[in-house]
Amino acid sequence: MEYLHLFIGTVLINNVVLVKFLGLCPFMGASNNLNTAIGMGLATTFVLTLSSVCSWLLQTYLLVPLNIEFLRILTFILVVAALVQFTEMVTRKISPALYKALGIYLPLITTNCAVLGVALINVSEQHDFIQSFVYGLGASLGFTLVMFIFGGLRQRLALADVPEVFDGAPVGLVTAGLLSMIFMGFSGLV
Amino acid sequence: MYIALGVLTLLGLSIGTLLAYADRFLAVDEDPLALEIQNLMPGTQCGQCGFAGCAPAAEAIAKHQAPVTSCPPGGRQLADTLAEMLGVDLDVSDIKGQLIAHIVEDRCTGCTRCYKVCPTDAIMGANKQMHSVFAAACTGCGDCLEACPEDCIELSPESVNVENWQWPRLVA
Fold this sequence. Notes:
The complex is a heterodimer.
Chain A: H1 2-13, H2 24-29, H3 34-63, H4 72-94, H5 96-102, H6 113-124, H7 129-159, H8 169-184
Helix pairs in contact in A: 1-7, 3-4, 3-6, 3-7, 4-5, 4-6, 6-7, 7-8
Chain B: H1 2-25, H2 32-40, H3 54-62, H4 75-86, E1 99-103, H5 113-117, E2 123-124, E3 132-133, H6 143-147, E4 153-157
Antiparallel strand pairs in B: 1-4, 2-3
């Protein structure tokens, strides 16, 4: 039950993108089209969940016992970068079309601050192993959910008759703001 | 400090080794020849060959499904290199004449739209100034034709000069 609370809390109430405002680059950059948005969400899910778990393991069994916690950010970045490389290889092998569609945004998962952010929040919130896993999975599924919603919205926006001054990125940002307000409405759910 | 150094070095080494092995297992069998051909091509994705872009064209050429002369912007030079790489006989008369864009100057209003879309930066001009085309850089992709609101750009075959003149094909 505790894990379910944590999970729903991370997906909806403390959504990484719309409430914590982490990972806005792929949120705005890779959401022009629903398929790319879902692909990006799933790739990030893979990286984020694994990096959340791996960084917890490193923190608990390497950094704390050796008393070198000051290397936390460096180590976590190393793990994240390696996982992104791995994901890139896997995507390229499994789905060349997705690999082409994601383009530069795939290696940019490395600099997606949500990935490092979740790993660091795990430490500061003193989550245990399963909590870290649930938190990472929740955060990344929340990210995917938001990417999915926003990708759909932007596909509709592309067809809508938007005033010329708002066309493109401005109306995208306004929509993101409205979506963020809607997600703020989830607070108090758990 | 030595512990920190050691830990980071070991971590980097082990992750690097794992990635190297992963790379070997997940290697994508891309045709290295197609990649090499693609690097030789102009890369402006003009579509004059009839393919969607340079990458699919390179693949087709590598598989001998398209002639080595299918890239007009590449011209004689590219056709020669490709024929040598693939070991095929080059039929020079197959090389399509290179098309070059020309701006009809009395209709040009200097709107700058054409040079913004030019993939090879072959159009020179400034706002409300006459634009003109550098023939040497133009690949004849026709992107500027679509962008021009005055309909004042024309594609015409390149004039024959010492650089591009070829021996006529011998008829037996």
